[in-house]
Amino acid sequence: MTDGLSENPAALLRWYIDAGVDECIGDAPVDRLTKRAPAPATPSAAAPAPVTMRPAMPVPAAMPADADALAAAVRAAQAATTVAELRAAVEGYDGCGLKKFASRTVFADGNPEAPVMFVGEAPGADEDRQGLPFVGVSGKLLDRMLASIGLARETNAYITNIVFWRPPGNRAPTDEEIACCLPFVRRHIELVDPQVLVLVGGMSAKTLLGKPTGITRLRGHWYEYETPGLPRPVPTTALFHPAYLLRSPDQKRFAWRDLISIKQKLAAAK
Ligand code: URA
User: Fold this and answer.
1) Residues 34-61: pLDDT tens digits?
2) Four-way CATH pick for 67-269: 3.40.50.300, 1.10.455.10, 3.30.70.260, 3.40.470.10
3) How far is it, in rounded angstroms, from Cα 37 to Cα 157?
4) Domain boundaries, the chain
5) Ligand 1 lining (C-beta closer than 6 Å)
6) Hey, which residues does 198 pair with through a beta bridge?
7) In angstroms, what is the span from residue 133 Cα to ligand 1's centroid?
8) Per the confidence metrics, is the pTM higher than 0.90?
């Protein structure tokens, strides 16, 4: 490098982060520009030793959720009688393949006594670093969206996700990974027992509403979320994910309508 970055590790790291490199996928550099001859099929004593290069580690594939892991999730979730116990149960659960690749468990943020609970999708790199949901760029937009209707995680909003660990490379969580987190998410909603539930993004909405429809059709309506552990059905709606709104600002007007509707529902629930 000619700009002095190679002599300044902090600047180099900053350069990588700015370029979107937020994850180490191998511990040895791979020079993809150098052509290598294919190694002989049977190396002879005379032949030079084949160059062994560690391939860059691919994004780890999803592990299938086994029945035991699912049953363990149901047992652990049901045994929790408080949000604190549930957090400990999630942190102690090893049945979800995502946990192996994550640095932190991202359980929740905000006030568990709040009248409204938001359930997003999956932690990203910032969330994985801090162990808190929605603290990156899309989290900043979510905070502004909440503030526009008088909500803040510090006081009257509670925020979690449909999975508790960052999927490697920010891929979407698989059905299996969602399935083993779901008993905890459902128990989480029962223990918080919010007056209003907001599902942020298509994955969260589809999973918790049990509908195959996309977010564009799910948003803008109210549903009733019901489980045996809830004293009554919870009025529930879906909201465009802030990451989507950052990519498609023309959709913000729909999100604004949804936020007003949430504000009205909360006022009616008082
Ligand atoms: N997106 C989510 O859905 N959840 C987070 O915690 C961060 C980004």
Assistant:
1) 555 444 444 444 444 433 333 344 444 5
2) 3.40.470.10
3) 59
4) 67-269
5) 120-124, 127, 133-134, 136, 138-139, 161, 201
6) 118, 237
7) 6
8) no
